[in-house]
């Protein structure tokens, strides 16, 4: 993927009326957004020498509105997130405070298993606190959008069928396979429509969490929350523990699932042990198949192939949970057949701007 850093710097230099700063591209993950670190050697009206610029393409400027509204909502609830310094919507620019600490996926690369477990236990406590400190607010975009049956079905059809099966594996479902896919996606989507107004970050994984290990308060800070919506209390837990970028051992996962069950009152209010396990399993299946499709969709939009390597593991995680449910046998067979097919990473690249409407947005 090419990043026109020099072209952006020319625009910024005109805006700042100075070119006395450096610009560095930052890894934006599997996203159409781009991030840059601006460093100013002399004092400016920004409070810090380092400033992060979030850049958005012109056809996705509505993301700025969601980001700002949810950022202000989180600020009112005292949820740690980078401060917004300045917005220039027409240019697609948001100037932000740099996230504090180390990005969790990078930090975890040098941790021992005991260090991983300690950190993730704190993270589960942070997630419980986040969910209990983010009440329903009618004007917050997160509570206008829902993880309901309609949304889950959309993700199955768009990410799994269209992106993963048709685009990545270049396979058209037969009539029998179409029926099996419909039954599978409907079963999971209907069950996961809990209608509980819980704030869901939507992408609560290691690449969107920053950690300050020496901090006694506010050890964690979250970013990329603009796609937050209302829905399942276990969605973010599954995103964290079945992360594409940090491998959490099964024993630690089980311990953390138990911790969440005991410490999140909402879980004991709405779920018994059996339904909690089913909610976890179905959420893993839905989330990881969505991830696989989202990785190929991002590649088609941005030509960033860095995340294609995570597709097979995401499918494996989903299939491991599907194995516990005989009713999903036909869908397991479809996925097994797909994995043996040759895929064309460069096929069917979309024209500029060819993405679905924001209401049912791909992320």
Strand content: 5-15%
Q: If you average the pLDDT, what whole number results?
A: 91
> What do we call the CATH homologous superfamily of the largest domain?
Aminoglycoside phosphotransferase (APH), C-terminal lobe
Number of helices: 12
Distance between the termini: 20 Å
The tally of strands reads 10
Radius of gyration: 21 Å
CATH architecture of the largest domain: Alpha-Beta Complex
Oligomeric state of the chains? single chain
Structural class: alpha+beta
Word description of this protein:
The chain starts with a helix and ends in a 24-residue tail after the last helix. The chain has helices at 5-16, 62-76, 104-108, 113-132, 149-168, 175-191, 235-241, 250-263, 265-270, 273-302, 311-322, 329-339, and strands at residues 22-26, 34-39, 50-55, 84-88, 93-96, 102-103, 198-200, 209-211, 220-222, 229-231. A hairpin with a 4-residue loop joins strand 4 (84-88) and strand 5. It is globular, with a radius of gyration of 21 Å. It is of the alpha+beta class. The protein is 47% helix and 11% strand. The strands form three sheets. The protein has a five-stranded antiparallel β-sheet, with helices on one face. It has a three-stranded antiparallel β-sheet with strand order 6-8-9. Strands 7-10 form a two-stranded antiparallel ribbon. The model is unreliable at 345-363 (pLDDT under 50). Helix 4 packs parallel to helix 8 (250-263), helix 5 runs antiparallel to helix 6 and helix 10 packs antiparallel against helix 11. It has two domains: 5-96, Phosphorylase Kinase, domain 1 (2-Layer Sandwich); 102-360, Aminoglycoside phosphotransferase (APH), C-terminal lobe (Aminoglycoside 3'-phosphotransferase, Chain: A, domain 2), CATH 3.90.1200.10.
């Amino acid at each position: 993927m090419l990043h026109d850093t020099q072209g952006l710097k020319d625009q910024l230099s005109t805006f700042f009326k100075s070119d006395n700063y450096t610009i560095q591209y930052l890894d934006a993950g599997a996203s159409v957004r781009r991030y840059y670190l601006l460093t100013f050697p002399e004092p400016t009206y920004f409070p810090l020498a380092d400033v992060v610029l979030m850049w958005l393409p012109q056809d996705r400027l509505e993301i700025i509105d969601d980001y700002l509204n949810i950022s202000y909502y989180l600020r009112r609830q005292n949820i740690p997130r980078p401060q917004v310094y300045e917005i220039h919507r027409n240019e697609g620019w948001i100037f932000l405070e740099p996230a504090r600490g180390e990005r969790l996926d990078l930090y975890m690369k040098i941790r021992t298993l005991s260090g991983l477990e300690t950190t993730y236990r704190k993270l589960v406590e942070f997630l419980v606190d986040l969910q209990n400190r983010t009440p329903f607010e009618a004007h917050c975009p997160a509570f206008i959008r829902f993880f309901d049956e309609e949304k889950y079905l959309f993700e199955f059809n768009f990410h799994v069928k269209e992106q993963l099966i048709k685009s990545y594996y270049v396979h058209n479902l037969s009539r029998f396979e179409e029926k099996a896919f419909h039954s599978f996606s409907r079963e999971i989507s209907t069950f996961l429509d809990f209608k509980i107004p819980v704030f869901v970050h939507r992408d609560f994984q290691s690449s969107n969490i920053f950690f300050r290990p020496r901090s006694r308060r506010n050890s964690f800070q979250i970013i990329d929350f603009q796609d937050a919506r209302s829905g399942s209390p276990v969605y973010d837990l599954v995103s964290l523990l079945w992360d594409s970028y940090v491998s959490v051992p099964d024993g630690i996962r089980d311990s953390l699932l138990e911790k969440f069950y005991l410490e999140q009152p909402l879980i004991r209010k709405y779920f018994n042990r059996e339904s909690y396990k089913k909610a976890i399993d179905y959420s893993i299946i839905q989330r990881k198949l969505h991830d696989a499709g989202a990785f190929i969709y991002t590649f088609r939009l941005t030509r960033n192939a860095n995340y294609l390597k995570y597709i097979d593991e995401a499918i494996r995680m989903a299939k491991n949970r599907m194995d516990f449910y005989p009713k999903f046998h036909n869908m397991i067979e479809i996925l097994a057949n797909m994995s043996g097919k040759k895929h064309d990473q460069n096929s069917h690249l979309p024209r500029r701007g060819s993405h679905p409407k924001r209401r049912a947005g791909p992320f």
